[in-house]
Amino acid sequence: MDLQLQGKSVVVTAASKGLGKATALEFANEGASVLISSRNAEELQRTVKEIIEQSGNENVDYEVCDVTKPDHIKKLVQKAVNWNGTVDVLINNAGGPPAGTFDDFSDEDWQRAFELNLLSFTRTIREVLPHMKKQQSGRIINIASSSIKQTLDNLILSNTFRAGIVGLSKSLSQELAADHILINTLGPGRIATDRVESLDQVKAKSLGVSAEEVKEEAAQAIPLKRYGEPEEFAKVVVFLASGGNTYVTGQSLVVDGGLVKAL
Question: Which residues pair with 103 in a beta bridge?
Fold first, then answer.
């Protein structure tokens, strides 16, 4: 299948590691011009080098961006436009909020989680839409969590704001269809990333067991009996963000090895 990504302008946030990095690599493999961002310049430089070496695609660059800061988002999108003339694909991604229950968090914690995990997505979309509307095409993928289908214990902040992403995406799919802009939400399940490892460690500490024991028990609850690999998730992102997808919009999908039992 021709994914029609050769030379396309792609922006991937929170891409110095984990799911963002794997997604950026898959786009580079398809010949896209990929601009990645995170808050750490050294990690971004290292990631760009690795992606170029692994993909053979030299059209990979970075911009330091704290997605909770509107001026950083504006600079990120403007760099993509200056580089490639437009933005064809936006992959919204952000680190997850801390684990905990309702009594663990103050108003300030809720505000930070809102700004990182929902408002940042709104702001990046706002910045790319004029360019996508002008060319009458575009793809937006919002990376959330499997909690968009089934809430996760001890992750009330994530459960709350990831659900907001679904509402945002569904509403925008109606508003943007006339401009041929498709938008979808993808929720990773237990994918082998630093984020999931840290959550396993938190759970292990609370139970007084090893992180390996927590991981093994979690894996056994997944029908495929293993954690997913970042590249497995990334391939789904890239398809939905490509020219190969012409009719899927407004959907919220999970990539989880069959773990979530909700319909």
Answer: none
Map residue 220 onto helix, strand or coil. helix
CA 109 to chain centre: 21
Any idea what the CATH number is for the domain that residue 44 is in?
Answer: 3.40.50.720
pLDDT in tens, 51-98: 999 999 999 999 999 999 999 999 999 999 999 999 999 999 999 999
Report how far residue 173's alpha carbon sits from residue 247's, in angstroms, rounded to the nearest whole number.
Answer: 11
What is the domain range of residue 126?
9-191+229-255
Residue 106 neighbours by CB distance under 10 Å: 8
Q: Which residues of 37-53 are buried (b: 16+ CB within 10 A; e: fewer)?
A: bbbeeebbeebbeebbe
pTM: 0.96
207 located within any domain: no
The separation between CA 260 and the C-alpha centre of its own chain, rounded to angstroms, equals: 19
Place of tokens 């509402």: 167
**Residue at 263 is within a domain:** no
Residue 216 within any structural domain of the chain: no
CB 101, CB 156: distance < 8 Å: yes
Number of domains in the chain: 1
DSSP, residue by residue, 92-104: E--PPPPPB-GGG
- Name the burial class of residue 211, with classes exposed (0-12), middle (13-18) and buried (19+) by CB atoms within 10 angstroms of its CB: middle
CB atoms within 10 A of CB 1: 7
